[in-house]
Amino acid sequence: MPVLEVRHVSKNFGAIQALTDISFQVERGEVVGLMGDNGAGKSTIVKTVAGNFPPNDGEIVVDGEVCHFHKPIQARAKGIEVVYQDLALADNLTAAENVFLGREIKKGIWPIRVLDKQAMIDRSAGLFKELKSETRPRDLVRKMSGGQRQAVAIARTRLSNAKLVLMDEPTAAISVRQVAEVLELIRRLKAQGVGVMLISHRMPDVFAVADRIIVLRRGSKVADKQADNTSPEEITGLITGAIRGE
Amino acid sequence: MSDFVATKEKTALQHIFSSQPFWVTIALIALVTLMTTMEPSFGTSENAANVTRNFAPFGIMALGTTVVIITGGIDLSVGSIMGLVVIVAGLFLTWHYPWYIAFAVGLFSGMACGAVNGFFVAYIGMPSFVVTLGMLSAARSLAVVFSANQMLYQFGPDAPIVKAIGQAKWPLHGPQDWAPHWIPELSSQFWTMVVLALIVGFVFNFTAWARHLFAIGGNEEAARLTGVPVDWIKFEAYVFSAFTASVASLLLLGYNGSAINAMGQGYELRVIAATVIGGASLMGGAGTAFGAIIGSAFLEVIRNALLMAGIDSNWQGAFVGAFIVLAVLLGMQAGGKSILAAWLAVLMPKKSR
């Protein structure tokens, strides 16, 4: 059973048709690259699946269950985690504090429920180790490199044992070395049986990790190809419209 | 761009040295020591009781303002809320209601103002500066209207209780009391501040609520995306700020034994100055309970010291202004180091590490 199935999803914002009849699936342990030019509808798909807004038409099926998300929390409860483009980290908090933001571990008896800081630090240290990242739980995010920040954002998705991780431009605006680090993180998620949707502009990154590539153009899906059976040239052609899709 | 440069984890000591409240505390201790040696009347327990009583209302309000400032907002209305609360409570006392009814209604009116602030800031999304500026004007105006621009002092049968609350002291010196003379008789305002500061300090350090509060100040959108109830917490911050202003107002009502609608005029700026000196960042995301108290204490000690040193009181503003800028300058971070540490590194190269 696919972890995510998007069935005939359409979305419009007023007169703007953002998505038209999009269907695709993501399996467990599969990395799917989602590509397209600016305004092709990549972010709209992410936000629809992540529960920021419901589609006008069609349905989102998670593990065979039809879901109607109105808030990101509902999607998260079904095992869908998002790593946002700007990473959604609070700079003034530490790595551990960011990993557990919004789902802190507490101890004690009501009404005096206090944070279990040590448990959160230990658990995030474990997650960073699992991701083979050099991030330390007590460091402030403000002082971290782009790669370490990515590790924090990805560690957050591991906290709940997510089934599907959506990553919005995780390799934009970081150095070459850090890109390699992030791609490694994605492979590790895949190895743990997590479905990954990678939204990116960067062709080499997508080809480096993706099993399958979906191309959007003007809100419609124009291609859904195994990465082995296509080439950067073909994908570029599909993105720009030089090659006509399905 | 640097890849994974191994930055050393800070030790607890380094943490303290890089914190602004620490340096302000050092400055405060230095100032007190200097004044005690230079001016005999400064170091007396009477003056200590005076100073602590004077800054306590500001310390109490600074705790509330710190909470708002951590969210990245500002509360300009606390002074006017004090005025409204004292008049509302004063009116109920003149109508011969029991003191606890008067205090409860006063507290309620103050917190209602905070709720209005919080509603417009958190749920409507208006800038806090504008909303609380409006409340600054509106609450003061209501205070003037309700009091018919009269001073209220003919309180009913509970007047002695109200006074006792505002003028209570502990420990007492008297012949039958245990405290020796060198221990200051600390005011009820001071003790209220201490208790509130301990509560706020505990909340800041040990609760998820405060984690969320700091996260909102650091990155509101991130907090929202991770499921933090951003709007509700911001709303609560403004209500708490108004609560602290109301408490300060009621204590001063008891101390003065009368209510005037001009109470708290201009206090908002002193309170904001105190929180900023204490290390709260107007950009949001930083602030401590200790800093709020120490900032308020610092401002009052400067004022008191200048007065005792016989310097024309018109100079106070200049000194206070200079210290606001200086304190923030010392606490500023430049390239991950405090400015002070950077200066020290220039003066004493290669000595540290």
TrEMBL record, chain A:
<protein>
    <submittedName>
        <fullName>ATP-binding protein of sugar ABC transporter</fullName>
    </submittedName>
</protein>
<dbReference type="GO" id="GO:0016887">
    <property type="term" value="F:ATP hydrolysis activity"/>
</dbReference>
<dbReference type="InterPro" id="IPR027417">
    <property type="entry name" value="P-loop_NTPase"/>
</dbReference>
<feature type="domain" description="ABC transporter">
    <location>
        <begin position="4"/>
        <end position="243"/>
    </location>
</feature>
<dbReference type="InterPro" id="IPR003439">
    <property type="entry name" value="ABC_transporter-like_ATP-bd"/>
</dbReference>
<keyword id="KW-0547">Nucleotide-binding</keyword>
<dbReference type="InterPro" id="IPR050107">
    <property type="entry name" value="ABC_carbohydrate_import_ATPase"/>
</dbReference>
<dbReference type="InterPro" id="IPR003593">
    <property type="entry name" value="AAA+_ATPase"/>
</dbReference>
<dbReference type="GO" id="GO:0005524">
    <property type="term" value="F:ATP binding"/>
</dbReference>
<keyword id="KW-0067">ATP-binding</keyword>
<dbReference type="Pfam" id="PF00005">
    <property type="entry name" value="ABC_tran"/>
</dbReference>
UniProtKB/TrEMBL annotation, chain B:
<keyword id="KW-1003">Cell membrane</keyword>
<keyword id="KW-0813">Transport</keyword>
<keyword id="KW-0997">Cell inner membrane</keyword>
<feature type="transmembrane region" description="Helical">
    <location>
        <begin position="237"/>
        <end position="257"/>
    </location>
</feature>
<feature type="transmembrane region" description="Helical">
    <location>
        <begin position="129"/>
        <end position="148"/>
    </location>
</feature>
<feature type="transmembrane region" description="Helical">
    <location>
        <begin position="21"/>
        <end position="38"/>
    </location>
</feature>
<feature type="transmembrane region" description="Helical">
    <location>
        <begin position="319"/>
        <end position="347"/>
    </location>
</feature>
<protein>
    <submittedName>
        <fullName>Putative sugar ABC transporter, permease protein</fullName>
    </submittedName>
</protein>
<feature type="transmembrane region" description="Helical">
    <location>
        <begin position="269"/>
        <end position="299"/>
    </location>
</feature>
<keyword id="KW-1133">Transmembrane helix</keyword>
<feature type="transmembrane region" description="Helical">
    <location>
        <begin position="190"/>
        <end position="210"/>
    </location>
</feature>
<keyword id="KW-0472">Membrane</keyword>
<feature type="transmembrane region" description="Helical">
    <location>
        <begin position="58"/>
        <end position="87"/>
    </location>
</feature>
<dbReference type="InterPro" id="IPR001851">
    <property type="entry name" value="ABC_transp_permease"/>
</dbReference>
<dbReference type="Pfam" id="PF02653">
    <property type="entry name" value="BPD_transp_2"/>
</dbReference>
<keyword id="KW-0812">Transmembrane</keyword>
<dbReference type="GO" id="GO:0005886">
    <property type="term" value="C:plasma membrane"/>
</dbReference>
<dbReference type="GO" id="GO:0022857">
    <property type="term" value="F:transmembrane transporter activity"/>
</dbReference>
